[in-house]
Amino acid sequence: MRLLLAAILAFAFAARAEELLAPYALGPTGFAGPQGVTQYPGYGTSGAKGIVLPIGVELGARLRWLSFALSLENTSSITAGDLGYLRAGWKLGPVFERGATLLAPFVGLYASHLQMDNYDHSTIQHAAAARVGIDFDHFLRPDFSVGGGAGIDLRFPGARGAADGWAGSIVARIGLHAPILRGQSELQPDSAQTISTIATLGGIAAGGILAATGSSEGGAPTAGITLAALSLIAAPSVGRALGGDGGSAALRTGLRLLVMSAGAGATYYLARAPNTGGPVAAVVSSTVIATIALGGQDIASTPDDLRSSRLH
């Protein structure tokens, strides 16, 4: 027994903390834990309240100080009735190191499918959901971590922005991690460009899928549209920022945010007036084209800009 205990301790603490935390890593994490939910439509003013058990998996990437994950989870039925959830989406946030432990506060957007009998179609089953929370992962080995997390969800089924349910959860987490970009003390220019390209195209594709899902059965495609817009605004500069050119990344991101905000404001103003379908379409298309052009130029120039900045 003593030999077994010694072997376990040796396995757990064979590497020092600085050797456990790879600055760039990719891998799956499983999670499960109790979640208290309150769901209103079809259940009167008091709603349906109870406990569900979410079980899920996320594919996460750590890019030095930034964490991003795609997540899929399914819950058991609520203890007060035949009602559960299927959620798919993403989350994003900064990463803080505390020895061999990573702390990652995050915000996320999800497509939330309410699994229930809906014979009279009175409830919108497909909707957007927002989540805020924090995860912590303690690394026992460079490729293995255990930890936990907590979060609060709000579910938004319609275009009015009113939530029809909320949930609070505490989960346990077990993760596998594969270090990437080994041997790089700083992100190489070509790797930075690749990260920006994947983040941008992946975010737009995921946003399109979520928007299409949210549009079915009367649900609002809020999560998908927001994800696609955020991807066009922020993702083209992710590699540049991780490569050390934070000032230029902030300026370029701010410019795309300004263009997108101006377009959204003009669209909102025009949409309130009658017979403005043509102008609205023109503003939306020109805004999207301009933002894509700015993002494409950002990605294309990233390697040369990083090489130039490191020479000075």
Low-confidence stretches: 4-15
Q: Helix and strand string, N-terminal first?
A: HHEEEEEEEEEEEEHHHHH
- By secondary-structure content and strand pairing, the structural class works out as alpha+beta
Which band does the percent of strand residues land in? 35-45%
Radius of gyration: 22 Å
**CATH architecture title of the largest domain:** Beta Barrel
Helices, by number, come to: 7
Overall domain count:
2
The 3D shape can be described as flat
Distance between the termini: 59 Å
Helix content: 25-40%
Oligomer category? single chain
Question: Any overview of this molecule?
Answer:
It is a single chain. This protein has 312 residues and is an alpha+beta fold. It folds into 2 domains: 9-179, Porin; 189-311. The chain has helices at 2-12, 17-20, 189-215, 222-234, 238-242, 246-271, 277-311, and strands at 24-32, 35-39, 48-52, 54-63, 66-75, 83-94, 96-98, 101-116, 126-141, 144-156, 165-176, 178-179. An 8-stranded antiparallel barrel has the order 1-4-5-6-8-9-10-11. The longest helix is centred in the C-terminal third of the chain and has 35 residues, at 277-311.
